[in-house]
C-alpha cells in the first residue's frame, strides 16, 4: 500500500497557542525524520521551511540548531544543513549511559527529595494523567520531560543534574518518538506513577531499578523503529 502524503502547512491553531514557532518547526521536522519523510542526507532549506510554516528564518534556524545538538541534523562548514545518518552504535551507548545516570538520579531523589518537591512531582504526574486521557500527545510529552527534570533536581547534586540533562537533551527526539508507539504512552505513564510512589516512600534501590528499566525500554522501542524503517537510516561506516 502506498504511503499517504503527509499534510503540509502549519500546526493546528490550538497547538500554536501552546508551542513557540521554534518548537512547532522542530517538532514537525523531528516527526518527518522519524517517519521517513525526510531521509538521511536530505537537504534542509531554511527558506523553504520558513515558507511551509509561515514563519521567519529565525525560528527555523533555532529549530535546526536544536536538531543539530540532538544529532538528527548535520551542517558541514559553509554547507546547507542535512538530515544526519543514524549512528546506531553511538546511540545505543548513549541510551546505556543515560539509563544508568537517570537510575542514579532516582536513587538519590528517593533519599533526598523534600516535601515540597514530592508535592511538585505529584502535580506533574496528575497533569500527565490528564494529558494522556485527553489524547494530547504534545502536552503529555512535555509533562513527561518535566517529571524527569523534577527527579533530577531532587538529587540535590548539581554535577549529576547537569550531566544527565546534557545527555537527555540529545536523546529527547528519540524518547519522544517512542511515545508514538502503540501502548507506550500508557506503559510510560505507569512507570512514572510507580516511580512517584517509590520516591515518595524513600525506596531508593527499587526506584533505581525501575528508572533504569524505564529508560532502557525506550531504546528497545527505537530498535524496532530501525528494523521496520522503509528507508535506509544507518550510517555505513564508523570513525
Shape: globular
Strand order of the largest sheet: 1-2
pLDDT averaged residue by residue:
84
N-to-C order of helices and strands = HHHHEEHHHHHH
Percent helix range:
55-70%
State Rg.
Answer: 19 Å
- Structural class assignment: mainly alpha
* Percentage of residues in strands: under 5%
Distance from N terminus to C terminus (CA atoms, Å) equals 38 Å
Low-confidence stretches: 1-17, 230-239
In this structure, how is the largest beta sheet organized?
Answer: 2 strands, antiparallel
Explain the layout of strands and helices.
Elements: H1 13-16, H2 21-35, H3 46-53, H4 57-70, E1 73-74, E2 82-83, H5 88-112, H6 115-134, H7 137-153, H8 158-178, H9 184-201, H10 204-228
Antiparallel strand pairs: 1-2
Structural summary, described in words:
The protein has ten helices and two strands. It is mainly alpha-helical. The longest helix has 25 residues, at 88-112. The radius of gyration is 19 Å and the shape is globular.
Amino acid at each position: 500500500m502506498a504511503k499517504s502524503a503527509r499534510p503540509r502547512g502549519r500546526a493546528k491553531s490550538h497547538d500554536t497557542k501552546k508551542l513557540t514557532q521554534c518548537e512547532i518547526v522542530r517538532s514537525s521536522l523531528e516527526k518527518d525524520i522519524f517517519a521517513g519523510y525526510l531521509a538521511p542526507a536530505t537537504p534542509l532549506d531554511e527558506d523553504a521551511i520558513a515558507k511551509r510554516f509561515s514563519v521567519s528564518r529565525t525560528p527555523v534556524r533555532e529549530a535546526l540548531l536544536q536538531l543539530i545538538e540532538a544529532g538528527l541534523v548535520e551542517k558541514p562548514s559553509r554547507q546547507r544543513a542535512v538530515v544526519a545518518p543514524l549512528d546506531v552504535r553511538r546511540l545505543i551507548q548513549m541510551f546505556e549511559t543515560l539509563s544508568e545516570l537517570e537510575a542514579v538520579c532516582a536513587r538519590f531523589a528517593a533519599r533526598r527529595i523534600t516535601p515540597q518537591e514530592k508535592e511538585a512531582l505529584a502535580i506533574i504526574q496528575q497533569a500527565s494523567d490528564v494529558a494522556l486521557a485527553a489524547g494530547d500527545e504534545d502536552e503529555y510529552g512535555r509533562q513527561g520531560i518535566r517529571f524527569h527534570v523534577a527527579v533530577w533536581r531532587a538529587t540535590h547534586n548539581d554535577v549529576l543534574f547537569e550531566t544527565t540533562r546534557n545527555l537527555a537533551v540529545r536523546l529527547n527526539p528519540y524518547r519522544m518518538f517512542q511515545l508514538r508507539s502503540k501502548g507506550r504512552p500508557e506503559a510510560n505513564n505507569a512507570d512514572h506513577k510507580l516511580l512517584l510512589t517509590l520516591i515518595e516512600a524513600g525506596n531508593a534501590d527499587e526506584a533505581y531499578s525501575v528508572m533504569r528499566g524505564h529508560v532502557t525500554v525506550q531504546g528497545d522501542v527505537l530498535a524496532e523503529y530501525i528494523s521496520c524503517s522503509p528507508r535506509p537510516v544507518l550510517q555505513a561506516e564508523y570513525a
